[in-house]
């Protein structure tokens, strides 16, 4: 039976060694806590790191670690101290983490870290491949494993792979500064489906892919030579029922069952009639805005002294990544800040901040969530922030006020919270005041709406939605209309080719025989290609026709010394072998005077674009333009042109990053079928990558072998992935002449 393979840096369980015994505790952090329930309920295996380095595990306990992991359907990846230093503390948390959270000043570019990151990603991919069976679904998680999708795809090309990024994806302007940006994007693009928490992160990713790798993106789909990759946003939810139930159990527990922490919290609340507790929970991370929060609290007390002895900030900071210098520095900063502010405001019976620097058991977390009337979460950047959602889920009487930073992904779905800019102390202080004074009815109204949404879009629903979309990618792949030219199919085509008495091959040029270049004039045929076409044409029984949208001068010059028939400008001109160019269609060109200034206006307004003038057509190229601006202007220009040319017998062709205006009477379909008139070809073959080649695919006889280059919607019967595959196929023709 097929299964789901989950891969993340950390397993949901942390293994530690106490007195030569293995101790298992749950991992913290949004990814592990969120996905745990999906894993628990389904048929899945989870691959990740146990939290112990190879050096830390005594020889005799190595098997034990795997056994403990296996009990939870997990597989532990063994990492050495050196690997953890380079991959985890290095590239993951000194390069990607700060960069993706817009802390450019903390971002290090160390090639040793990068090398280690690649090596460890390969290690994860290898473990996945050991467990992978055909039909399994693979789901890779987070920024530590950005290269894994591609590494799996290289060995298992047909695998169905999803990738989810749990942290923000930065804007192109920030991402582009990464020295290894191409490799990172290519790594992620090994997946079929790429998920983000918010539409903004999705947009940023798509923009980086189209600007850096220059892949074609249509809405949320990226067209690669051999596959389509979908990008979408899926805001991660929580295990709502678990938190709700824990809160209900908490309320039902008797005084005797209460934890020490709960007793202390109660003590504060009972100390004065309108005492309040403000809660803050995070890993101790500079992205969480903990120092900002404390300063804003100080500002609040300075400006609202009436709250002294009434409010207390209960701050839980969970130790995290303490080998990274910024985290150590942050720890010192927070210690000092808490000390200073407690020193400044404390009275005999009251300290304003209770600060815990440790992990806490789940029950204590619930104590905090249920007892604190206000939650103050002020990250400077946060992919999602599950704590915000957990707080709301535990408020079973619907009271409580959540103050949440607009920089957290969760803010997009939690509009009913008090949304603040964490850098604006005045606003944070004002929100605290509003929270204190908010009538119960309003709290209930806001929280009911929040709870309804959180209950519906739980972590289970989130995972189901992602999986559903991922499986749809597979169906999409399977239902792809044209058939990939596999080695079996190419053998079949060759058999027919050999049998035939008279053959004709229509071959498009750009995007088919040669790849695209920034400037059209740089796409000259190489000597091998010329030789191949020459050899194909040697046989009396085989006619080769290069059929292109190019102008006749360029095509004629490039193929001057090769005896091959040429059709240029989509069929306007024709050159027989060794002959001169002849006008094949009687077309007009007066219209150009009207159309040219319109296109020129678009060239002026769209940097990187230019006009190509052919004898009977005008083409506007936008391959070098900013991809988003280019697409937008292409749409605009296409509409303007269509209006301008209506009733003039002209049409606008939308090619690959080019718009072309030409006579409606001319197209490759008409030109190629004209070549067949009065002939007796028993093998007709046409290959091309572009929209303009579709005319050939549609108009040639049904018995023809029509082949599209690249995976796009097409009327062709077959497809090949790219120009390299085109040459392979043509070489096979040559070898079987
Ligand atoms: P991040 O993923 O950046 O750490 P999130 O707020 O998304 O931030 O996720 C934090 C997760 O860790 C939450 O699910 C929360 O319940 C859990 N957590 C936070 N503090 C503790 C703690 N002291 N003990 C156990 N789990 C904790
Ligand atoms: C965030 C990341 C997770 C990570 C977690 C805890 O939630 O998105 O991938 O596991 O923080 O960080 P740590 O470095 O301790 O695994």
UniProtKB/TrEMBL annotation:
SUPFAM superfamilies: HAD-like, UDP-Glycosyltransferase/glycogen phosphorylase. Pfam families: Glyco_transf_20, Trehalose_PPase. This is Alpha,alpha-trehalose-phosphate synthase. Its EC number is 2.4.1.15. It is an enzyme of class 2 (transferase). It comes from the Bacteria. NCBIfam families: HAD-SF-IIB, PRK14501.1, T6PP, trehalose_OtsA. Belongs to the glycosyltransferase 20 family. In the C-terminal section; belongs to the trehalose phosphatase family. Pathway: Glycan biosynthesis; trehalose biosynthesis. Homotetramer. The lineage of its organism: Bacteria, Pseudomonadati, Bacteroidota, Flavobacteriia, Flavobacteriales. Signal peptide: none annotated. It catalyses: D-glucose 6-phosphate + UDP-alpha-D-glucose = alpha,alpha-trehalose 6-phosphate + UDP + H(+). InterPro entries: Glyco_trans_20, HAD-like_sf, HAD-SF_hydro_IIB, HAD_sf, Trehalose_OtsA, Trehalose_PPase. Keywords: Glycosyltransferase, Transferase.
């Amino acid at each position: 039976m097929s299964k789901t393979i989950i891969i993340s840096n950390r397993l949901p369980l942390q293994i530690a060694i106490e007195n030569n015994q293995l101790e298992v505790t749950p991992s913290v952090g949004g990814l592990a806590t969120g996905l745990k329930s999906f894993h628990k309920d389904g048929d899945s295996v989870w691959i990740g790191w146990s939290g112990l380095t190879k050096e830390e595990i005594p020889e005799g306990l190595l098997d034990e670690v795997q056994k403990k992991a296996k009990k939870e359907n997990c597989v532990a990846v063994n990492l050495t101290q050196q690997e953890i230093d380079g991959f985890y503390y290095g590239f993951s948390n000194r390069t990607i983490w700060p960069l993706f959270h817009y802390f450019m000043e903390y971002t290090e570019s160390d090639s040793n870290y990068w090398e280690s990151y690649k090596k460890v990603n390969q290690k994860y991919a290898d473990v996945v491949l050991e467990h992978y069976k055909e039909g399994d679904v693979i789901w890779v998680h987070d920024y530590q494993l950005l290269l894994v999708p591609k590494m799996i795809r290289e060995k298992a090309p047909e695998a169905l792979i999803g990738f989810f990024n749990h942290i923000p994806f930065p804007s192109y302007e920030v991402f582009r500064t990464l020295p290894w940006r191409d490799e990172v994007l290519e790594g992620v693009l090994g997946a079929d489906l790429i998920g983000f928490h918010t539409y903004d992160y999705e947009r940023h990713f798509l923009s980086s892919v189209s600007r850096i790798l220059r892949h074609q993106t249509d809405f949320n789909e990226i067209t690669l030579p051999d596959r389509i990759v979908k990008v979408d946003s899926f805001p991660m939810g929580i295990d709502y029922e678990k938190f709700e139930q824990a809160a209900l159990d908490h309320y039902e527990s008797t005084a005797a069952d209460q934890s020490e922490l709960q007793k202390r919290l109660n003590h504060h609340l009972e100390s004065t009639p309108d005492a309040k507790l403000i809660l803050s929970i995070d890993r101790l991370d500079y992205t969480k805005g903990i120092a900002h929060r404390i300063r804003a609290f100080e500002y609040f007390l300075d400006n609202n002294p009436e709250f002294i002895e009434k409010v207390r900030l209960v701050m839980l900071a969970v130790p995290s990544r303490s080998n990274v210098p910024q985290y150590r520095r942050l720890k010192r900063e927070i210690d000092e800040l808490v000390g200073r502010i407690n020193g400044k405001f404390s009275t005999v019976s009251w300290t304003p901040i209770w600060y815990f620097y440790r992990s806490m058991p789940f029950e204590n977390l619930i104590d905090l969530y249920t007892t604190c009337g206000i939650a103050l979460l002020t990250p400077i950047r946060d992919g999602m922030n599950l704590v915000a959602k957990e707080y709301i889920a535990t408020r079973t009487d619907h009271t409580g006020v959540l103050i949440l930073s607009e920089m957290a992904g969760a803010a997009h779905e939690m509009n009913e919270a008090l949304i603040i800019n964490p850098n604006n102390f005045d606003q944070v202080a004002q929100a605290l005041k509003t929270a204190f004074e908010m009538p119960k009815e309003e709290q209930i109204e806001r929280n009911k709406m929040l709870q309804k949404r959180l209950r519906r879009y739980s972590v289970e629903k989130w995972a189901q939605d992602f999986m559903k979309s991922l499986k749809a990618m597979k169906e999409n792949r399977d239902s792809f209309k044209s058939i990939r030219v596999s080695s079996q199919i190419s053998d079949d085509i060759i058999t027919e080719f050999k049998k035939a008495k008279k053959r004709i091959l229509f071959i498009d040029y750009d995007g088919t025989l040669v790849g695209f270049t920034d400037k059209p004039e740089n796409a000259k045929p190489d000597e091998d290609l010329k030789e191949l076409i020459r050899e194909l044409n040697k046989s009396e029984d085989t006619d080769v026709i290069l059929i292109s949208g190019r102008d006749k001068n360029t095509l004629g010059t490039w193929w001057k010394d090769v005896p091959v028939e040429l059709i240029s400008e989509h069929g306007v001109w024709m050159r027989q072998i060794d002959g001169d160019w002849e006008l094949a269609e009687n077309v007009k060109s007066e219209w150009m005077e009207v159309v040219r200034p319109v296109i020129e206006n678009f060239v002026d307004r769209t940097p990187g674009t230019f006009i190509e003038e052919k004898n009977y057509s005008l083409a506007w190229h936008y391959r070098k333009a900013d991809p988003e601006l280019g697409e937008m202007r292409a749409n605009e220009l296409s509409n303007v042109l269509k209006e301008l040319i209506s009733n003039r017998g002209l049409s606008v062709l939308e090619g690959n990053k080019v718009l072309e205006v030409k006579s409606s009477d001319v197209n490759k379909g008409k030109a190629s079928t004209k070549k067949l008139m009065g002939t007796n070809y028993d093998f007709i073959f046409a290959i091309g990558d572009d929209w303009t080649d579709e005319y050939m695919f549609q108009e040639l006889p049904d018995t023809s072998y029509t082949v599209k280059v690249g995976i796009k919607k097409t009327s062709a019967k077959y497809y090949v992935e790219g120009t390299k595959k085109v040459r392979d196929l043509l070489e096979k023709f040559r070898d079987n002449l």
